[in-house]
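From the methods appendix. Each design record in this collection lists the tokenized structure first, followed by the designed amino acid sequence. Records were kept in a plain field format so they could be parsed without special tools. The example shown here is representative of the layout used throughout.

RECORD:
FOLD TOKENS (270 positions):
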């Protein structure tokens, strides 16, 4: 059997697809795409034309290897770069999913925990625990630029992934900026999503600390009081006026916090 005959006997459309792609590129005077770029283009087109909406589960690495007739490491590179570009999210042992559109400021990303969880193919649920108007304690008054004792809105939520609590959210909201905050149906739209959608902000501050939970927080998060937590404190402003301060507590064994930035200081989302 000649080598030419051997090449013709290799089954599968992907090889033919690659050959025709190279021929078309050559005819057009354009360089052929690298194999991993072909996978990225295929997936990106599916996302852009709506065939694969946010939360859609992508074919597995093995399925993409079989479809394109290329090495697993090549497919892995394509998926890894799509994650870096924020087009997809990957969950170890679960799969790859089309990323949700995430609300963000010009400086930092505000993570939507509900979208993150659903993008991993998991069930999300929010337990709304507290919605009240209280007198601002001195610390809260300073954060929100209010007078101590001045009226402030207070909301507490528990976020669960597959019925496992992953975040305890304790939020204070400036009534001067969001006077109708307590009138919202937070069973339908959690406070964080409501604020991002309805109250534009132009500044954001994130501070992360390692802390131990209180007895009440540990009970809500179904964790021992001796286990450390990651505490994310976020403040937002609109036109220099504080909007909200929220403290999000995460069991360190169930959650990670992080960002990726390019060398020019601009964030890489994903």
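DESIGN:
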């Amino acid at each position: 059997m000649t080598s030419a005959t051997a090449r013709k006997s290799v089954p599968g459309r992907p090889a033919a697809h690659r050959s025709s792609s190279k021929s078309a590129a050559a005819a057009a005077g354009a360089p052929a795409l690298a194999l991993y770029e072909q996978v990225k283009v295929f997936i990106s087109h599916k996302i852009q034309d709506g065939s694969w909406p946010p939360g859609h589960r992508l074919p597995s690495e093995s399925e993409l290897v079989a479809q394109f007739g290329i090495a697993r490491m090549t497919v892995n590179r394509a998926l890894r770069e799509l994650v870096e570009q924020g087009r997809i999210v990957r969950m170890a042992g679960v799969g790859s999913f089309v990323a949700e559109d995430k609300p963000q400021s010009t400086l930092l990303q505000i993570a939507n925990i509900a979208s993150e969880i659903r993008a991993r193919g998991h069930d999300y649920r929010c337990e709304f625990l507290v919605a009240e108007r209280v007198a601002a304690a001195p610390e809260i008054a300073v954060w929100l630029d209010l007078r101590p004792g001045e009226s402030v809105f207070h909301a507490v939520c528990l976020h669960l992934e597959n019925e496992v609590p992953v975040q305890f959210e304790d939020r204070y909201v400036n009534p001067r900026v969001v006077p109708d905050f307590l009138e919202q149906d937070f069973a339908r739209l959690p406070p964080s999503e409501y604020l991002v959608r309805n109250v534009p902000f132009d500044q954001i501050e994130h501070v992360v600390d390692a802390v131990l939970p209180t007895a009440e927080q540990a009970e809500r998060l179904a964790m021992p009081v001796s286990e450390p937590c990651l505490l994310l404190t976020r403040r937002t402003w609109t036109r220099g006026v504080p909007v909200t301060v929220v403290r999000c507590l995460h069991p360190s064994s169930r959650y990670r916090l992080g960002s990726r930035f390019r060398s020019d200081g601009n964030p890489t989302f994903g």
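APPENDIX NOTE: Residues 12-98 form a domain with the Arc Repressor Mutant, subunit A fold (CATH 1.10.10.10).
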